[in-house]
Design goal:
The protein has one domain: HUPs (Rossmann fold). The termini are far apart. It is built from 5 helices and 5 strands; from the N terminus they run E-H-E-H-E-H-E-H-H-E. The chain is of the alpha/beta class.
Length: 151
Amino acid sequence: MATPVLLCTDGSDEALGALSAGLALLGRDHDFVLVSVMDGPDEASLVGSGHAGAEMSLSEYDDQVAEAQKTAQRAIEEAQNELSLVGAEVRIVSGKPGEAICHLASELSASAIVLGSRGRGGLKRLFLGSVSDHVVRNAPCSVVVTKSSLA
C-alpha cells in the first residue's frame, strides 16, 4: 500500500459531512484508511483507587468494551456506505482520540489525515480540548480539517 490518507470518523453526521468535504478537496485517487476511535471504559475502573474498591466488575467492563467496539464499527460502516468507500482499509483504535489518531498515522506512515471540526469556540475548547487541535499540533503528516458540507 502506498502512503495512505486517514479518514477519521466518530459516526456523527458532522463527521460524515466533513469527510465528504475532505474527499472533495483531495479527490479519490488515494489509498484510504477509515478510522474510528473506540471510546471504551478506563481500565482503572477495574482496580479502584486503593481507598475504594473497583467501580465495575470484569463482566461489566467487558460489556462496555463490546458496546464501544459495536459503536465504532457502526461509525465505520456508515462512513463506508455514505462515502462509497467499500474498498478502504478499516482501523478501530482505542485511547484518547487525538493521540490514537496521531499514533496510527505514524505507524502507517500516512501522507495525510482528514477529520472534521465541530467548531467549538473559546472557553469550551479551553476546558474540553479539541481532537482536531491535538492532531494538527502533533500529527507526523499533513492534516486537513474540514467543516461539514452539510452545514
